[in-house]
Amino acid sequence: MMGEEKTKSVGVIGLGYVGLPLLLAFREAGRRVIGVDVDAEKIRWLEQGTSYLSHIPDERLGVLAGEAARLGTDFALLEEAGAVIIAVPTPLKGRVDGGRTGEPDLSYVEATAEALAPHLTPGTLVCLESTTYPGTTREVLAPRLQEGSGLRAGEDFLLAYSPERVDPGSDHAIEHIPKIVSGLDEASLRAASELYRAVTPQVVPVSSLESAEMAKLLENIYRAVNIAMVNELKLLAHRMDLDIWEVVEAAATKPFGFQAFYPGPGLGGHCLPIDPFYLSWRARERFGFRTRFIELAGRVNAGMPDHVVQRTRRAMSEMDREVEGARILLLGVAYKRDVGDTRESPGLRLMYLFEEAGATVRYHDPYVPVLPSTRDYPGFEGRRSAALEEEELRSADAVVIATDHSDVDYAKVGRESSLVVDTRNAMARVPGGSARVVKA
């Protein structure tokens, strides 16, 4: 169905943490690429050769210069693409008691489909990579593409789903991760498999779009549930006067039957705090099934920031200090170590809770010099990272480690602070120091 000439050009819609690395991977593999994003600022940065993602160096953007790469906000550019990959956000709606309501927000997928449809040409392969519930590609994406284009999926154009497996800040680049691939029909599956073989060491075909959508959710639910389990054990370990990190490390010496998961101040990133609830919602709304493990894990993980605040409050009280009117220095607002991604970060939730309790909060994060606008905390936009200087540490009534970035001077933190509340076990790697360290 796809002509030989068209297969050489790959379009990517959404140039964020998923889409930009994917665009670069295809270009580095020798394909012509077309990158489209509704954010004109991103396009300007890329045209200037400047990266807006901390884990992608400017030098890598050089492959986007020249005629083999086209960038813009106009979906009409995609008329030249033989394959179009959709990599847009799939968030949740609303917030209740520190957790999500669990209702999927597919507005980005829907808007993208409606914008792409008028420019969809016969023979094009369209592949969704956004994480979503089983049935989305077939029931949400396909009808909108068909209605807006007048073309039929499986007859006039090809349709596939291949879930992203991006892990910002790690060594797991797209080029090293097996790719799950599915298709609306055999022709779509073959075309999608051939497409991704250019940028991945292994294509893993599955029998249906829904199986691929479910597989991605399983990957993230597995982590979310296990992290919730160890977070709950952390709460018990505190009451039993045990060190949960020591317990996990000891258990991890078993060479079989155990995988280590570590506690923290809550879940962050675009995947783990959100994706499980896509399946939970689908199970409830379509099949009348309650996913009890997912819901319980969500409640446990969502409650971790409140636990950290309470541990901090108790530790300060023992030092004749109160949270109200206190100065809190938050170390880390990114959701994970050594990245600048603040999406769903528990650090932002901690900032909100401490300020709600009457504290003044400053933060230090070498990867987030300025806080971006977020849907949940728009009032934080523009706040700047404080330098980790002696006076900053000494003047803080409590220093709370929310993200254990590897290039933070924890020895200085232990030396100059009076109270450190450590949610990541970062201070265990630092000998000595005069600060009182409380694990949370």
Task: Write up this protein.
It is a single chain. By secondary structure, the protein is of the alpha/beta class. It has two domains: 6-213, 3-Layer(aba) Sandwich (Rossmann fold); 229-439, Rossmann fold, CATH 3.40.50.720. The protein has helices spanning 19-28, 40-47, 107-116, 136-149, 186-196, 209-239, 244-251, 275-287, 292-302, 304-317, 346-356, 390-394, 410-416; strands spanning 9-13, 32-36, 69-72, 83-86, 92-93, 103-104, 125-128, 158-161, 179-183, 203-205, 327-331, 360-364, 398-401, 419-422, 436-439. The protein has an eight-stranded mixed sheet, with helices on both faces. Helix 1 (19-28) links the parallel strand 1 (9-13) and strand 2 (32-36). The longest helix is centred in the middle third of the chain and has 31 residues, at 209-239. Mean pLDDT is 94; it is low at 1-6 and 96-100.
Helix-strand makeup class: alpha/beta
CATH homologous superfamily placement of the largest domain: NAD(P)-binding Rossmann-like Domain
**Average pLDDT reading:** 94
Give the neighbour order of strands across the main sheet.
3-2-1-4-7-8-9-10
The CATH topology of the largest domain, please? Rossmann fold
Distance between the termini: 57 Å
Order of helices and strands, N to C?
Answer: EHEHEEEEHEHEEHEHHHHHEHEHEHEE
Number of helical stretches of at least 4 residues: 13
